[in-house]
Amino acid sequence: MAPRNQDNDVEGNDHDDTVKPNLRASQLTNAELVPDAGKVHIEPAESWGTGIINDFKRTVGTHWVKEVTNFNQKTIAVTLLMFISVIAPTFTFGAVYGKESGNRIGAVETILATSWVGIAYSIIGGMPLCIIGSTGPVLAFTKALIRISESLDVPYLTFNAWVSSWLLFYCLLSGFFDVTRVIRLATRFTDEIFALLIVSIFVLDAVGDPFSQVGILRYFDPNHKSHSDYQDDPNYNYLETALLSTILGFGTTTLIFFFRSFKTSSFFCNQGVRTSVHDFSVSMSVVIATVVKEFLFPDVETEQLNVPDQFEPTYQCCTSDCLTFFPDDCPDQAAAAGARPWFVDFSDLNGKGYIPIMAALPALGAFLLCFLDNGITWHLVNHKSHNLQHGEAYNYDLCLSGIFNFVNGCLGLPWLVATTVPCLIHLNSLAEKDKDGKIIYVQETRLTMFLPHLMVGLSLLVLQVLQLLPMPVLYGVFLFMGLSALPAMQFWNRFLLFLQQPSRYPDTVFTRYMDKSRVHMYTLWQILFFGLVFFVQNMSAISIIFPFMTLLCIPARLSFLPRFLEGWELLLLDGDDLDIKEWEDKKRAAMHSIRFVDVEETQHGKEEIAEDEVSDA
To answer: In 539-576, which residue ranges form alpha helices assigned H by DSSP?
Structure first.
């Protein structure tokens, strides 16, 4: 067959006007389909202070009235769901804070902080879909601050108050100069490393943290702190307590997942009942597990939530100077001399006048932690695929976070930030989705944040009821919160590919177009960086710098990974959905062009053979 004459094709064959552009499209490589694929760009900084003002105008100033008046049936259902989603980790974090801080911060302080900050943020915050609460990274940083204050021989609450003052300064400075735009450089690579870090804290603190005395399996340790209260009781058996605690903890988690499974089942008379069982799965499981403990095993002691008998600071004092804790430090004393004051004494420095200046250094780490914890969660919630319409307010909300945590520091309350798992639960509960699970609309309201946090505050009026909650049950809720977040994480799903048959990999854009070894290489790099952050966070000697390690994941993705993976591969693995769709559309068009050109060439060849046969005849 004679070669085709391209010049003649262009001039003499009208159909080839279509073939030639299709041929050019088919010759594009994967890297050429989308220019600058895999690269992340940042917008110029807004002029001084205007970022805060524009954030306020774009969100609160534009949508506030609509967000506080769009009450409907979904508002009630989501409010009840979020109350359970907020109150359970609040109790659990309160108990853990009490253990780690020597009861300087406990359940009452955590409940009070969660309530007032959540109510205030729901009223004046810029992104009310983001639930405020305690998080594992903040708890880990608090542990580091406690160790620093002990090494300096300075009261922890005083040291924390000075750190909170510097934290406020850094947050205001960052918002004023629009530093928060840097968070937009974070891609799925950094987002999911941080999200998995939070999930790991949830799971380890529930099951049994190897780095502390927290978790269900820790009850099997005869030296566990909860057993010391019964060491003089001859009828007490720590193994009985440990076994029952294990059953209650893991049983609670199992019950929650069991009840949630009814939503997509065929049980019950209609979908409304199935949805209600799903929405109230956490509360029903907690009640059932508590009833089992109280009525079936009343003689087996388990650790209870450490809540005072009345609304006052958790730290009860042996003497008027409040330097020792009642009753641990004065077991022979009949009653406490009083509780610590609500307002922290900034001057209680134990003669170390340099502490106010020295606190600026750990406050820098605290700022990075709040910046990343808030920023990455905001980044996840405001992802383009969620179709949120009321805008972002990174600068404005960071300033609010600094103010809220400064007030908490002055009152001896824990720092609070945007909580990744409850935020995503909140978002998905307010979303309308199509049959493929994609979000098509979200009811953006302030009511489903205001009402749950108001209910959390009102729970302080029933403290005696809260004392009935067994700690293992709350650990079970903690475990559920962590495990429920895993299926939605691409990082976790890519890790599971190592355990799956390659021919049966899930159909995703990266398994469809990328070589499997390249996908695994990206996952291994992500595991390595996650391991580094996790290691630093859990090593007490260097845990203070783990926010810096998390921050380093951003330049690692921008400058380090492109040395090993092409831009289009990075785009498919952690790019925005719209950019991925653009690349895939062009890829499909190119593949169609190849098939079209092949058909045209085959047809043209048949025509030339027929012409040759006619001429020979």
So the answer is: 546-555, 567-574
Contact 156, 340 (CB under 8 A): no
CA–CA gap between residue 468 and residue 569 (Å, rounded): 53
- Element at 339 (helix H, strand E): strand 338-339
Overall size of the chain counted in residues? 617
Q: Which phi and psi (to 5°) does residue 431 adopt? A: -95, 145
CA separation for the pair 342, 321 (Å, rounded): 14
In degrees rounded to 5, what are phi and psi of residue 432? -105, 130
What span, in angstroms and rounded, lies between the C-alpha atoms of 473 and 91?
11
Cα end-to-end span (Å), the chain: 17
Helices and strands (DSSP H and E) totals, the chain: 25, 6
More confident residue, 258 or 613: 258
In terms of C-beta density within 10 A (0-12 exposed, 13-18 middle, 19 or more buried), how is residue 602 classed? Answer: exposed
Among residues 118, 128, 116, the alpha carbon closest in space to that of 68 is found at 128
Exposed, middle or buried by CB within 10 Å (0-12, 13-18, 19+), for 161?
Answer: buried
Cis peptide before 327 (omega within 30 of 0): yes
φ/ψ region of 333 (left if φ > 0, alpha if ψ in -120 to 50, else beta) reads beta
Angle, alpha carbons 70-379-181 (nearest 5°): 115
d(CA 568, CA 30) in angstroms, rounded, equals: 7
Residue 444 near residue 64, CB atoms below 8 Å? no
Rounded to whole angstroms, the Cα distance separating 561 from 205 reads 32
For residue 403, the tally of other CB atoms under 10 A from its CB is: 15
State the number of CA atoms in the 13 A half-sphere of 240 facing the CB. 11
pLDDT in tens, 17-42: 444 444 455 566 777 777 877 788 77
In whole angstroms, give the CA distance from residue 186 to residue 376.
8
pTM of this structure: 0.78
Structure tokens at 490: 């691409």
The residue among 339, 419, 362 whose CA lies nearest residue 143 is 362
Is a pLDDT exceeding 80 seen at residue 269?
yes
| Coil, strand or helix at 3 | coil
Residue 96 in tokens: 């853990």
Q: Enter the tokens of residue 48.
A: 């001084």
Q: What is the pLDDT of residues 368-409, one digit of tens each?
A: 889 988 988 898 888 787 889 999 999 999 999 999 999 999
Place of tokens 């009942």: 273
Angle at 505 between CA 502 and CA 511, to 5 degrees: 95
Q: Do the Cβ atoms of 288 and 254 come closer than 8 Å? A: no
User: What number of other Cβ atoms are within 10 A of residue 588's Cβ?
Assistant: 10
Nearest to 141 by CA among 533, 555, 553: 533
Question: Which residue, among 452, 354, 428, 365, has the nearest Cα to 81 in the 3D structure?
Answer: 452
Sign (positive or negative) of CA dihedral 30, 382, 179, 164: negative
Kindly report the number of other CB atoms within 10 A of residue 292's CB atom: 17
Token duo for residue 523 = 């996952």
Q: CA-CA distance, 533 to 194, in Å (whole number)?
A: 9
Spatial distance between the Cα atoms of 188 and 379, rounded to a whole number of angstroms: 10
